[in-house]
Amino acid sequence: MYLLLVLIFSLLFQAIHAPYLLGVDIFMKNSKELSYIGSRIRKIRLKSGLTQEQLGEKANLHYSYIGQVERGDKLPSLKTLKKISEALNISLDYILEPTEKYSTKSERELLQNELLSLCENKSNEEIEIIINLVRNVFDQLEKLKEIKQEHAK
Questions:
Q1: Separation of first and last alpha carbons in the chain
Q2: Does residue 148 surpass a pLDDT of 50?
Q3: Residue spans of alpha helices (H) in the chain
Q4: Which long-range contacts (CB under 8 A, 24 or more apart) does 59-66 make?
Q5: In degrees to the nearest 10, what's the CA dihedral of 129, 115, 82, 25?
Q6: How many angstroms separate the Cα of 61 from the Cα of each of 14, 43, 103?
Q7: Which of 43, 85, 118, 137 sits at a 20 to 30 Å CA gap from 33?
Q8: Is the pLDDT of residue 24 over 50?
Q9: What is the rounded distance in angstroms from the CA atom of residue 87 to the CA atom of residue 45?
Q10: 74-92 tens-digit pLDDT
Q11: 31 pLDDT above the threshold of 80
Q12: How many beta carbons lie within 10 A of that of residue 90, not counting itself?
């Protein structure tokens, strides 16, 4: 009986510690996924012109945590990813989905999606203001086109 208990204990010990001895952490998340999510966040942050500190402030997270996520050292929870995506004015799926999903879309579709994602967390009143601003910009662009056409004649 004693020998059986020692054997079970030994097997249990090996099952628990062998992955660490081999350099494999069975509880660690897939490092490829970690680095993918982190690199997507870094690319989007840099494209937005934000520092890690600024993103951290907007997402109510510490800047060092943002750095850990971007390096793939930490896997953020869905709640934290949502905070980050809102701070970057993008939808959560833009962080999680493979880049290929977005690269197959036309440039126009990508720009339209970006415009929509900017409005995602805005109130109806804010969206109405944005629409009015965009209309004014379009009106000004039309006037500029007309002026250029007149000068071209």
A1: 103
A2: yes
A3: 2-21, 31-47, 52-59, 63-71, 78-87, 92-96, 99-103, 107-119, 124-152
A4: 59/83, 59/84, 59/86, 59/87, 66/41
A5: -160
A6: 39, 18, 30
A7: 118
A8: no
A9: 9
A10: 888 889 999 999 999 888 8
A11: no
A12: 21
Amino acid (1-letter code) at residue 38: G
Give the model's pLDDT for residue 107: 72
CB atoms within 10 A of CB 53: 13
**Amino acid occupying residue 139:** D
Q: For 94-101, which contacts have Cβ atoms below 8 Å and span 24 or more sequence positions? A: 94/40, 94/44, 95/37, 95/40, 95/41, 95/44, 96/37, 96/40, 99/40
Global model pTM greater than 0.70: no
Domain 1-105 has CATH 3.40.50.720: no
Q: What is the pLDDT of residue 59?
A: 95
Helix, strand or coil, per DSSP, at residue 120: coil
For 33-68, the pLDDT digits (tens) are 667 888 889 988 888 888 999 999 999 999 999 999
